[in-house]
C-alpha cells in the first residue's frame, strides 16, 4: 500500500552555476537565472509504502507524517531563500531535482522502519514542471 501526504511551501531561488558562462547559465536556467532571485509556490508530495497495520488499519499515521515534514523540512524551506537560508541545501544549486534529493536525505531515516519505507518524493515547482525521486 502506498500513502501520500502533500505539504506546500513558498520560497525564492536563483539557478546559477558559477563554473558556466553567463550565456550558458541563461540558456540553461532561463527565468530561474534571474539575478535578484524569484519565487515559486512548491508542492511537496511524500509517498510512504508499507503493509497495513492490522490494529490501526493504517500504513503510516498521516498526521505524524505531516508533523514530521513540517518540523524537518517545511519549516526550513517556507518563505526562505533556497540559495542562502537552508542548511541542508548548502552548496547545492537549488533545482527541483536537487531539492527533492535533499529532502529525501533529510527525512528517510525518520520514516523507514521494519514496517514501512519512504517510497517517493514528488516536488512540483510550477503548474507544468515537477520531479519525482525514488531514492
Ligand atoms: Ni525558479
CATH homologous superfamily placement: 6-pyruvoyl tetrahydropterin synthase/QueD
Number of DSSP strand runs: 5
Class per helix and strand makeup: alpha+beta
Strands ordered across the widest β-sheet: 3-1-2-4-5
Small molecules bound: nickel (II) ion
Query: Low-confidence parts lasting 5 or more residues at pLDDT below 50?
Result: none
Q: Estimate percent helicity.
A: 25-40%
Instruction: Please give the alpha-carbon distance between the first and last residues.
Output: 18 Å
SSE topology string: EHEHEHEE
What is the total number of structural domains?
A: 1
What shape does the CA trace take? elongated
Give the overall average pLDDT. Answer: 97
Number of continuous helical runs: 3
List the helices and strands and how they pair.
Layout: E1 2-13, H1 22-29, E2 38-50, H2 62-77, E3 80-81, H3 96-111, E4 116-124, E5 130-133
Parallel strand pairs: 1-3
Antiparallel strand pairs: 1-2, 2-4, 4-5
Nickel (II) ion binds near residues 13 and 32.
Plain-language structure description:
The protein is an alpha+beta fold and 135 residues long. The protein has a single domain, classed as 6-pyruvoyl tetrahydropterin synthase/QueD (Tetrahydropterin Synthase, Chain A), CATH 3.30.479. It contains 3 helices and 5 strands. A 5-stranded mixed sheet has the order 3-1-2-4-5. It is elongated. The two termini are 18 Å apart. Nickel (II) ion is lined by residues 13, 32, 38, 40.
Amino acid at each position: 500500500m502506498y500513502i501520500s501526504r502533500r505539504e506546500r511551501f513558498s520560497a525564492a531561488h536563483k539557478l546559477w552555476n558559477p563554473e558556466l558562462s553567463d550565456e550558458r547559465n541563461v540558456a540553461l536556467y532561463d527565468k530561474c537565472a534571474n539575478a535578484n532571485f524569484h519565487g515559486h509556490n512548491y508542492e511537496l508530495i511524500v509517498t510512504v509504502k508499507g503493509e497495513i497495520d492490522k490494529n490501526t488499519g493504517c500504513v503510516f499515521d498521516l498526521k505524524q507524517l505531516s508533523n514530521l515534514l513540517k518540523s524537518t523540512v517545511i519549516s526550513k524551506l517556507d518563505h526562505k531563500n533556497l540559495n542562502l537560508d537552508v542548511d541542508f541545501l548548502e552548496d547545492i544549486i537549488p533545482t527541483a531535482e536537487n531539492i527533492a534529493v535533499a529532502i529525501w536525505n533529510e527525512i528517510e531515516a525518520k520514516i523507514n522502519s521494519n514496517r514501512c519505507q519512504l517510497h517517493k518524493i514528488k516536488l512540483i515547482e510550477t503548474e507544468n514542471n515537477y520531479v519525482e525521486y525514488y531514492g
